[in-house]
Structure prediction request, 470 residues.
Amino acid sequence: MSTIYIPKHIRPMHESLTNSDCALFHDMTNVERDSLEGIADQTKCNAGDYLFRQNAPSDNVYNVITGTVAIERVSNNGRRQVLGFLFPGDYLGVTNAPHYDCAVRSLTKTEVYKFNRKRLYSLADELPHLKTNIAEVSSRIFCRILDQLYILGQKKAHERLCFLFIQLLERLPGARPDRIELYMTRQDMADYLGLTIETVSRSLAKLKADGLIAFTQLNVLQIVDLPKVSEMADI
Amino acid sequence: MSTIYIPKHIRPMHESLTNSDCALFHDMTNVERDSLEGIADQTKCNAGDYLFRQNAPSDNVYNVITGTVAIERVSNNGRRQVLGFLFPGDYLGVTNAPHYDCAVRSLTKTEVYKFNRKRLYSLADELPHLKTNIAEVSSRIFCRILDQLYILGQKKAHERLCFLFIQLLERLPGARPDRIELYMTRQDMADYLGLTIETVSRSLAKLKADGLIAFTQLNVLQIVDLPKVSEMADI
DNA sequence: CGCTACATTGACAGCGTTCAAGGTAAGTGG
DNA sequence: CCACTTACCTTGAACGCTGTCAATGTAGCG
Prediction:
């Protein structure tokens, strides 16, 4: 039973998160969950705000409650690479380095839980399940990066877009083949997939013309031919 | 003082490894080092052999003693992506997933230390430094993957090659600007950099013609203009 | 209405892939 | 020692995808 104060309009963390990456609470007892909730602060930010910047001290681990964020990395010469999009349930800032090696920008209004990393990691020393779960979260993040690496190394523009769509379908809460809301701009997609915005636009047009996808609105996608889209995305 | 048996032609692990990634022993006492060495088996394999295959159970963590290996991933449609090259001191098989999501092939005769992962991780529960060091190793692996991701997303062919050269210069033991031995084939480079073998060949010719690099032998590279090569590789 | 930000489309050039031919080096067997 | 094989690498030519530059279209907002 929880003893800490929770504003009544907020559901306990382990009930409000639906994504499969919501793993910190996995296998934990209620008492353990309460201690984990005890070190979490809830914060909000608006579309366009940065949760943290590249090279800032990596003080916190975050867990997305609502909204979508983009992880991005900018190099000396100004080129930007988006390393991933994160959704409710996803974790960010899970690193052992003293500074973040990337920035996190919110694409929508976003609510997150913020864990002080030192406190989280020392709590993990007491709660074996938590330690396992942190490792599990890291492992999943790593697997996704490997997928993206493969896509960037081996796939053509329209295949990369299909990969993104399948990822959204699998990970974005509420996404269905007939309705996937794209919270990111074309530029964000381009920077994620290693393309230009024009190529993204043209590839979308091609996929549309071929009857694989459709747009009900500018940013609402429909996957018309899921088997073919899956096949093109296949890693 | 070491009490376990070490064949006399083999130097203790923590003395034989020079790479900066040799981090498992960092900050450990001699007693701690001995217990870590106690769970290590030494094995060898020939060029072309696989240390482990994609989807095999992830039973072991390896540490390269001598030689060079390539981490690779093959997809359903047969396209191959090389995820990295590893050198003496580097670790591989560091994952929390029950199966390896990639294969590891040796490019040369290779000696490795093999740690049973369960034993390594339970030993880490007793030795705080070891746990920290494992996390540190994971973190470095992750950072390198992010670098590669950026390269694949944003760089042109000749820039990607410069990136590889700088990586080799920094990480391959014995590499100097005027002599870098390339243990991998052109095809391996291509699969690492997301290019075709022909593009690799042509880009090498271009870099040579521009006076940035030279070849003393087919597989022995010389970086002639290090500042320019570094600049092109810049992440 | 006009402003702004974002997205699409067109024309064209260039980079990288593809297909094909030729070259190089090491190893094998007569 | 030399022809032959094999694996790897280089080079050429043509094609096509993607990037670049520029213009146009669209949606939201004051």
About this structure: Chain B touches chain A through 31 residues (CB under 8 Å). Confidence is low (pLDDT under 50) at residues 1-21 of chain B.
